[in-house]
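FIELD: query
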Amino acid sequence: MAPQKLNPSSSTPLYKQVYTILKSRIANGELKPGDKIPTENELIQEYGVSRITIRAAISELVEDRVLERAQGKGTFVCKPKDAYQADDSHGFTQSCYLSGKIPKTTLLTLEYVLPSPKVQSFLQLRDGEPTLLSRRLRFADNEPILIESNYYAPCLSFLEKEDLSGSLFNILHQHGYSIVTQARSLDVCTANKEEAALLNVKRGSPLLLFTDYQLDGEGKPLFFSKQVYCTERLKFYI
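FIELD: result
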């Protein structure tokens, strides 16, 4: 494909024209996610502009997360992030299917623990009463996406004997429970050593933390949920 030409007489700065052309080459599939883009020298020769112009265009594409730099390797086209509804009304499994992804879940731990005061209050537990806690690693197309920690009300103790490697929403629906989100909050955190290893990111990488208070159809507490999402592989829409 013949390279698109720049227009030196245009009011649009040359770096912005290079930016637009490279973005167009990505959009039309000439450059695909994961592809290494031409070197600075190759782009200088292709478009007949200065190194400063090329670097400005690439820097803006990196800032817009269209491209990403790999130290000592070059600059690559970013893989598109999966999009999920921020209200999580479908649950993770169904959200994956709606996005054309294949979900998978690994149960990390399932045990009884003493809850924090906040969890105890929401689940209406007595002082010293333990709660069932499940920790699960969720995948989309074999990419680790989130770590989920659920603290269950006593009425859900039967989950101890259920297969939690699939959809929790489906299990609860099969037992006659409807799920209503009383409140959902969003915070930003950074990956600790364990989270970094499970999500295959660097320690200290930014993560999204969702906290959910889930009720049944009668307004009784079902479970308290904390979900830590990898920001490198997905985005949310509202």
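FIELD: remark
Helices lie at 14-27, 40-47, 51-63, 91-98, 117-123, 168-174, 193-199.
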